[in-house]
Specification:
Layout (H helix, E strand, L loop, with lengths): L3 E5 L8 H8 L4 E5 L15 E4 L13 H13 L4 E4 L1 H9 L4 E16 L3 H7 L4 E12 L6 E6 L2 E8 L2 E4 L7 H10 L1 H5 L10 H6 L1 H20 L5
Parallel strand pairs: 1-2, 1-3, 3-4, 4-9
Antiparallel strand pairs: 5-6, 5-7, 7-8, 8-9
Helix pairs in contact: 2-3
Amino acid sequence: MKPVAIFRHAPSEGPGLLADYLNERGIPWQLVRIDAGEAVPDAAAGFSGLAFMGGPMSVNDDLPWIAPVLALIRDAVAREIPVLGHCLGGQLMSKALGGVVTRNPVKEIGWGRVAVAESAAARDWFGEVRAFQAFHWHGETFSLPPGAELLLSSQHCAHQAYSLGKHLALQCHIEMTEAMIRDWCAVGADEIAAAPDSPAVQTVGQMQAEMADQLPQLHAVSQRLYGHWVSGLRD
């Protein structure tokens, strides 16, 4: 089986639970370290799927790797090779496929409830789950590209996830581990401190205090979504 290519855009924003899921099932994967200057592959044909992680930059920034990534996403979709995006990754998918990425009304940082849409597509991806506490860290949001179906929304962000056939884009984070949350809280301490009045930004103490209760259900959701996504991987 060809490997899944996982694209990392910042050292602290690795694959987390996605890597655990693939390893447990013997699915090969390859990490492409965009943050370390590794080249974006020219084509998607060498991979069974593409997964894009988060990052602090904007898809609208003038960065040399963004245009090749957008072209690679379009190539994968044309070849029916599944694409998966987490936060920045979902925004890259939206921009590549005809959507736009703009500022969200407020920053979302920390735990927050997301609601699953009432649709056949949402049931395919989420099964009986109707709402859950996701982890958030974003200041921008994506629109739905043509043909996409909305899967998730929250009080502070209307577009939390969408599907386009076998492709899945998430604004929220389902890949989180306890170590990642602690690391992000340290790296992003200034960003948290700069938004004390946002109704959707938790303190470091609040985020970490909720980990024991929220991570098990988040892991269950991630298992469901990753399972549905890998069922579409190409050989």
